[in-house]
């Protein structure tokens, strides 16, 4: 980057300064300065001068000076009504130099994970352009090198590691290895991987580490890459020649790298992974026990064609009357996937009769409403799953999936393995148990009035995935 001599400070109307588009592309917070900055500028004005280039690029729509540093200060000055701000001009020859200088000026600011990665992408792009420029001016590169006997490489190949480490240090990742892990998560999120997108959100909120996010995403990326190889979508002639070694490499997956079925976390953290593994984007899904929509909190809106209903009209976005999961108002074979999470604790089914209006709403809605319930306690739980399963099978297309949430329990001093009992019922219906996810609570469950413990307290539940078969 060429050195530019800054000018003396001038005082200009903040409206006369043009924001650089790269600032919005990378940082995206120009128009929303925080209250502390607004308060400071309102009290004492803009202390640190705005840095701007007075020479607009040929062909630009505006001939106003372009801001290099101070976008948020300029916007804050406008919001509090300042008529002038201090500006120091620096003359740069090209927009590439402006972009590089803009990123350098933002090096010390607080940045979110997403801002760091967008910044890193721009730094890498600028470095590639610099490398092309350097290569274009070299006179020691032999033309027609393909006629020689020796293999040649790009003159900048050896600089890749140095560039990576430089970018990592500039944006605040420290080491190139950490930057590589961050890029893996970021690239997967940009490619539409839901889990990676959730991890990026948590990284932006500083609720996750780069290593922790990488651990969540790396297996998924590896699996997708292997699937592409198997489909031939990313193979070349050279890769085909080395396919035997690639197969051997894929077979040497370490135990700690395997995708696991048990997750310590909450339903809204695990459910998106269930969908990502088993349900294609764009699939028609009916969540027939939607409730407060907890499962869907971290699923990107629009990724699936969701029909969300519940027996309680106030919790049923797609039905003003409410929908009972045991009596679905849908045509046969109309959905790719059904999500089912009925009350699975026997305490909800103490009586086959409808309770008083003052009782818990789930009892009020589910118990005694269909005229078919004859059982109580745990038997009523199984009856609920059976009736809902029959309806799910009716409205599912061939090979459609039923995702059912459930939990084992102790009933009348006997251990009841609900997930086994329901699976047996569904197998008889024509469902095949395809997969199982165990969700372990991140908190400590309550124990109530327990004076002597005889069985392990249940702190886990299940997502069972069943496939409809003929």
Automatic annotation (TrEMBL):
Q: Which Pfam families match?
A: ParB_N
Q: Note down the stretches annotated as region Disordered.
A: 1-33, 100-179, 195-253
Domain named ParB-like N-terminal is located at 10-107
Acidic residues bias (residue ranges): 148-159, 225-249
Q: Which InterPro entries match?
A: DNA_methylase_N6_adenine_CS, ParB/Sulfiredoxin_sf, ParB_N, SAM-dependent_MTases_sf
> Which residues are listed as membrane-spanning?
none
The protein depicted here goes by the name: ParB-like N-terminal domain-containing protein
């Amino acid at each position: 980057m060429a050195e530019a001599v800054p000018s003396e400070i001038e005082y200009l109307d903040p409206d006369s300064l043009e924001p650089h588009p790269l600032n919005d592309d990378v940082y995206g917070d120009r128009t929303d300065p925080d209250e502390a900055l607004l308060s400071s500028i309102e009290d004492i004005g803009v202390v640190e001068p705005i840095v701007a280039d007075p020479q607009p690029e040929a062909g630009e729509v505006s001939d106003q000076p372009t801001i290099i540093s101070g976008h948020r200060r300029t916007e804050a000055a406008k919001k509090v009504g300042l008529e002038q701000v201090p500006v120091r001009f620096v003359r740069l020859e090209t927009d590439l130099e402006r972009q590089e200088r803009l990123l350098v000026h933002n090096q010390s600011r607080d940045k979110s994970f997403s801002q760091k990665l967008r910044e890193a992408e721009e730094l890498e792009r600028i470095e590639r352009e610099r490398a092309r420029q350097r290569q274009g001016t070299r006179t020691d590169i032999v033309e027609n090198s393909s006629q020689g006997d020796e293999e040649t490489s790009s003159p900048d190949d050896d600089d890749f590691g140095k560039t990576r480490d430089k970018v990592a240090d500039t944006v605040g990742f420290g080491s190139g290895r950490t930057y590589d892990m961050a890029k893996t998560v970021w690239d997967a999120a940009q490619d539409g991987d839901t889990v990676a997108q959730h991890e990026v959100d948590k990284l932006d909120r500083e609720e996750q580490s780069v290593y922790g996010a990488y651990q969540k995403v790396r297996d998924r990326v590896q699996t997708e890459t292997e699937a592409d190889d198997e489909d031939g979508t990313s193979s070349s002639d050279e890769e085909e020649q080395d396919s035997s070694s690639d197969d051997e490499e894929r077979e040497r997956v370490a135990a700690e790298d395997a995708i696991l079925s048990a997750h310590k976390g909450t339903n809204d953290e695990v459910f998106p992974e269930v969908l990502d593994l088993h349900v294609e984007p764009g699939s028609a899904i009916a969540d027939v026990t939607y409730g407060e929509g907890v499962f869907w909190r971290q699923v990107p809106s629009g990724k699936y064609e969701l029909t969300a209903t519940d027996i309680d009209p106030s919790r049923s976005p797609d039905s003003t009357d409410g929908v009972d999961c045991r009596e679905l108002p849908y045509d046969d074979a109309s959905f790719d996937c059904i999500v089912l999470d009925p009350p699975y604790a026997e305490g909800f089914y103490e009586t086959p009769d409808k309770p008083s209006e003052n009782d818990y709403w789930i009892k009020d809605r589910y118990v005694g409403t269909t005229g078919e319930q004859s059982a109580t306690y745990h038997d009523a739980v199984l009856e609920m799953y059976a009736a809902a399963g029959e309806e799910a099978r009716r409205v599912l297309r061939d090979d459609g999936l039923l995702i059912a949430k459930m939990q084992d329990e102790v009933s009348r001093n006997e251990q009841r393995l609900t997930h086994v009992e329901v699976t047996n019922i569904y197998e008889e219906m024509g469902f095949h148990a395809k997969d199982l996810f165990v969700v372990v609570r991140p908190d400590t469950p309550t124990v109530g009035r327990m004076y002597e413990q005889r069985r392990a307290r249940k702190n886990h539940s299940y997502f069972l995935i069943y496939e409809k078969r003929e």
